[in-house]
Design a protein that fits this description.
- With 319 residues, the protein is an alpha+beta fold.
- 40% of the residues are buried.
- It is built from 6 helices and 13 strands.
- The chain is globular and about 60 Å long.
Length: 319
């Protein structure tokens, strides 16, 4: 079963775990977020969500194989592996939880150094997405690692305490279509088409709460939660409404310092392009109770614009 959404990391993954993975009662899960959790980065919040997933799976009696994929630059043998701390951190977690481990980094680098693989041939499109030959190598590495784990009778175990002190212990996906919505909002079905296969929101969501541009001045959406992380999961097209957000009465600003949060697919340049959207509002809150207010913005919006939210996702409890 393919429960992966391309281009997303473990921060969204931990909120999808129940609906898209555990519901299938799996015996084995292949876990890979190394590139999309930023294999060049080392922020703690991404480690907390990754370890939450690993811990939750193995605690449920599910065998896990950690798969660590890279990009073209990370497979260049001239690059020091220390430049990719996320790969090293995920390897440490795999060892701590005694999971299977398919580490593509040293194997692909060795094949490049020997001339068996040419990186330009493996990555003819861009530095992130390989051609079929690349996926073939990835598959064989994952297969061999799985067979080695079975041969050695490896048993996944859960450490008494999380490896990372901030690892989330409380994760909540608050479904808005199931909530009492303020005036101007109503529940609708998801879009049935998308710009690409794993961007089809109806695969990952079961309805959305919708506010149209004509109703944007109606009651704002308010939600009180406890945690240190908050994000929005929903869907949009190129006419999607933007919104303003306040947290505990203070404006929440984007990383560029604006108080307007875009919720639109217009950046892709397609007319009526539809996709799921994932928007992290804050991941560095004090771990306590907070009040979030979402106010759709109609000014300058397309008259047919909509803000379509499936859930408010919060996490905390690890600090």
């Amino acid at each position: 079963h393919d429960a992966a959404i391309g281009g997303t990391g473990s921060s969204l993954g931990m909120f999808r775990l129940e609906r898209d993975v555990l519901v299938h009662d799996p015996d084995l899960v292949f876990l890979d977020f190394t590139v999309n959790d930023n294999n060049y980065g080392s922020d703690e919040e991404a480690l907390w969500s990754y370890e939450y997933i690993l811990r939750r799976l193995i605690s449920s009696g599910i065998a896990v194989e950690v798969v660590m994929l890279g990009d073209r630059k990370s497979y260049d043998p001239s690059q020091d592996l220390a430049k990719f701390p996320r790969r090293n951190q995920h390897a440490e977690l795999a060892h701590a939880y005694c999971s299977g481990l398919a580490d593509t980094y040293p194997i692909i680098r060795e094949k490049v150094a020997s001339g068996e693989i040419d990186l330009k041939t493996m990555y003819p499109f861009d530095g992130i997405h390989p051609d079929d030959i690349g996926y073939e190598h990835f598959y064989l590495i994952a297969k061999n690692a799985y067979e080695a784990a079975v041969e050695s009778k490896l048993v996944c175990t859960v450490p008494t305490e999380p490896v990372h002190a901030g690892t989330y212990t409380q994760v909540n996906r608050h479904l808005l279509p199931d909530s009492d919505l303020p005036s101007g909002w109503k529940t609708e079905r998801n879009f049935r088409v998308s710009l690409w296969f794993d961007g089809l929101s109806s695969r990952w969501q079961d309805g959305v709460a919708v506010c149209r541009a004509s109703e944007a001045s109606s009651s704002p959406l308010t939600y009180t939660f406890s945690g240190s992380f908050v994000a929005l999961f929903g869907e949009a097209d190129d006419k999607g409404l933007s919104f303003k957000a306040t947290l505990d009465g203070e404006p929440l600003l984007t990383h560029r310092g604006s108080d307007i949060w875009a919720f639109s697919t217009s950046r892709f340049g397609f007319t009526n392009g539809r996709l799921f959207l994932w928007k992290v509002l804050s991941k560095e809150l004090s771990d306590g109770e907070h009040k979030l207010v979402i106010q759709p913005v109609a000014e300058g919006a397309n008259p047919k614009g909509q803000l379509r939210l499936e859930s408010i996702c919060t996490a905390g409890g690890g600090q």
